[in-house]
Request: fold
Amino acid sequence: MQEDLFNWYVIQTKAGDEEKIKEKVDKLKIENLKTFLPKRKLLLRKKGKFFYALKALYPGYFFVNFKFEPSIVKKLKKIQGLIKILSNKNGIPKQVPPNEMSLIFSLTNENEIILPSEAFFVNDKIKIISGPLLGLEGQITAVDKRKKRVKVKLPFFNSFKEVYLSYELVEKI
Reply:
């Protein structure tokens, strides 16, 4: 995301309504106001089938960047479905520290989406992308999520051998 001219603030909505309220804020067409709703792409399982879904990184919240003016805050608070702008004890919107916004931006791509890390499953076909076994292809027989490694069955001299490999050494094919 580009360099911001103003401060970032947090808007609270009902969980699940973030996108709808964000669109309402965007429709106000307030000069130099930007909205940002970071989402994560999740691999979910339903009825035995795996699929990807986009979910808000912070359910019930999204970010707005604008020059703080009471008139803008008043316009925002009139939006139906907007619960509140996170504020201090005096009711003044509290800004998100720039280093925290930078961290969130570094995790997202241009579409405000945080992509999932690679997930490996038993029976996945893989290719070794680094190390002395570079280029060999095999099949995953076990996954150790805690140690972040997979047990792979590889062809060796007309038979198969199983070896443990770190996630970083393999990619799905």
